[in-house]
Amino acid sequence: MQKTIVSHSSVSLCVECSFLLDHLLLCVLVQTHVGLSSEYTFDTLVTKVVNTPPSTPLCPTVDPVTSFGGNIGNFVSWSIGECTDAEDSSIIPVCDPPSGRLFSVGSTLVTCSCTDSSGLSSECTFNAVVTGG
């Protein structure tokens, strides 16, 4: 690919690029209106970056809890470590439903996910169990 650019200062700039598998060869030729010229060549390594999702959150093992009197449910809490990501370093998982809320009697599926700034995500699931009281 070659492109010639003429500026208002009577200097021509000719840029030629060659693309190889993992290199970009950039050749710049600068010419003045009186025929003086200089040529510069830059060989640049091009690396393909593969964006990967964050690590999978490590879902906790949560022991069943007993409902308050009258089977109204109970609060269930847990802690979960951060996910790692090449792009965003560490990401705090978001759980749905969240830790610390009131769960009804029975088994509730909880999904914890980590989403990076590119929208890639990973998740784990576990059950929050509240037994009748």
TrEMBL record:
Q: Spell out the InterPro entries in the cross-references.
A: HYR_dom (IPR003410)
Q: Which UniProt keywords apply?
A: Repeat, Signal
The reply to whether Zinc-finger figures as a keyword in the UniProt entry is no
Question: For this UniProt entry, which residues form the secretion signal?
Answer: 1-37
HYR domain residues are: 49-132
Pfam families linked to this entry: HYR
Q: What is the designated name of this protein?
A: HYR domain-containing protein
